[in-house]
Amino acid sequence: MAGFVLEFERHIVELEDTIERLRSLPESTGINVSDQVTELERKAQELRRQTFADLSPYQRAQISRHPRRPYTLDYVDHLMEGWQELHGDRNFRDDPAIVCGLARYRGKGVVVIGHQKGRSTKENMHRSFGMPKPEGYRKALRIMSLAERFGRPIITFIDTPGAYPGIGAEERGQAEAIAKNILVMSKLRVPIISVVIGEGGSGGALAIGVANRVLMLENAIYSVISPEACASILWRDSTKGPQAADALRFTAPDCLKFGAADEIIPEPLGGAHRGPEVTMNATGQVLGRHFDALCAMGPDALRQDRYDRFRKLGVIAQAAG
Asked: What pTM did the predictor assign?
């Protein structure tokens, strides 16, 4: 995993590796190459600036999927205290693709729900690559109902390609589970904040994303479908994913423009995988500001605020005449 490199950043990584090798020379050979290292560092910085200054939508999608980006449990460890994970939907079984639990955030008890991917192949198989099954959404629903009962704000972290598409999931009511979550979340009388930290794919994301505020990391995506799946449907060719990405308008700036997101959280140059701690600190700052504002609102105002937010989505202004 440490060697995972996106194709469009390969030339940068190779130059950074060269710099690291040169830095080790003085210790092993006594040769002073500080001037060369300084020049290469300047060149590497310029390459990073040029490469990441104008990313295409598909390149942002690739960054959103990078396996070294912080995942839900990383944010929990970094931002929360007293984390206690809760398991099971009390109906079928536990789904590791969604983690739920109790924690303290800014001195206040909260409920945290989020998609969880794995770092290795074994972990990803265990967590279904972050694609929840119905029992995962029903577990989330159970914990959200618990949050309302005890008046705890809800924080969700979205990072999934979509709901699990297997036969078993369909047999156990995947669509019904997602739809019920959307319905119940719209009526909850506690603050809800969702943070899109990577991929926000289709109903699999929306099932824990009906929030008062939706925040997006700079290189996250939020869409009804992945670009590859979209290309497979439209052109029967998944390799046309970059073309589909241009049309889907799923980047954070697009979502902010259309009202699907309320604020963009900045990432380090090159993406969250190049500075996980910096990214999580920035997320904590933005999340905390919205958290404090929403916690100051009453239950009825929170539900009305959420209703008004989603009613505005998709509104089109038509010129007279």
From this structure: 0.90
Beta-strand (E) ranges in 68-133?
Answer: 81-86, 98-105, 108-115
What is the reported pLDDT for 99? 97
Report CA 258 to chain centroid distance, whole Å.
Answer: 18
Contact 202, 163 (CB under 8 A): yes
The residues that bridge with 116 in the sheet, in sequence order, are: none
Cα–Cα distance, 73 to 96 (Å, whole number):
12
* pLDDT value for 1: 45
> Mind listing the pLDDT tens digit for each residue in 32-78?
667 777 888 888 888 888 888 888 999 999 999 999 999 999 999 99
Structure tokens at 151: 């008046």
Intervals of the chain under pLDDT 50: 1
pLDDT given for residue 48 in this prediction: 84
Helix (H, G, I), strand (E, B) or coil at 146: helix
pLDDT tens digits, residue range 86-99?
A: 999 999 999 999 99
Radius of gyration of the chain (CA): 21
Q: Please report, for residues 107, 110, 113, 133, the alpha-carbon distance to residue 297 in angstroms, rounded to integers and kept in the order given.
A: 17, 16, 21, 33
Q: Is the dihedral of CA 139, 112, 103, 97 positive or negative?
A: positive
Phi, psi dihedrals of residue 97, rounded to the nearest 5°: -70, -20
- Helical (H) or strand (E) element with 213: strand 213-217
Alpha-carbon gap, residue 260 to 281, rounded angstroms: 23
Element (H, E) at 160: strand 154-160
List the chain domain ranges. 7-54, 61-312
Pick the CATH number of 61-312 from 3.40.50.360, 3.90.226.10, 2.60.290.11, 3.40.720.10: 3.90.226.10
Cβ atoms 238, 231 nearer than 8 A? yes
User: E strand or H helix at 171, and its extent?
Assistant: helix 167-171
CA angle, 70 as apex, 138 and 66 as ends, to 5°? 100
